[in-house]
Amino acid sequence: MSKPNYTGIYNMVSQNNFEEYLAALDVNYALRKVVCILKPSKHIEHDVNSGEMKIKTVTTFKNFDMDFTLGQEFTEDLGPVDGRKCQTTVNWDGDKLVCVQRGEKEGRGWTHWLEGNILHLEMRAQGVTAKQVFKKAE
C-alpha cells in the first residue's frame, strides 16, 4: 500500500484543548492566550519517494519551519511555542505520520493523518493531548 502524499496548504478549522497543552509545556499565560487565538495554516511539501518533508506553520504572529527526512532524527527548534530545542524523529505508523520528541518534556510528540481533504494534528506532552483540524485549500 502506498503512503499518502501530504503536499498542500491546509487552513485550521478547529482546535481542542490547546491551551492546556501549552500549559503542560510551561508556556507562560500571556503567550498561551495569544497563541490560542491564532488560526494557523500548514504549508506542506512532501516528496513521497525520498521521504523529505517541509512543514511550514504560518500565522500572523510568527511562522515555524520544520524540514526533515522521515525516519532520520534531527534537532527541532520549537521556536514560536516555547523557544526550546529537542531531538525529533518522524516516521510512518501505517498511513499516519508520528513524531517523537526527546527533550525536557516527557511523552512529547504529535501525529498527523489525512481523511480526504482534512488534515488532523494530535499533539501530546506530559499526559495532555490537544487536537487541531485543518482543511485543504482548493
Automatic annotation (TrEMBL):
Keywords: Transport. CDD domains: CRBP3 (cd19464). Gene3D superfamilies: 2.40.128.20. GO terms for molecular function: lipid binding. InterPro entries: Calycin (IPR012674), Fatty_acid-bd (IPR000463), ILBP (IPR031259), Lipocln_cytosolic_FA-bd_dom (IPR000566). Residues 8-25 form the Cytosolic fatty-acid binding proteins domain. Belongs to the calycin superfamily. Fatty-acid binding protein (FABP) family. This is Cytosolic fatty-acid binding proteins domain-containing protein. The lineage of its organism: Eukaryota, Metazoa, Chordata, Craniata, Vertebrata.
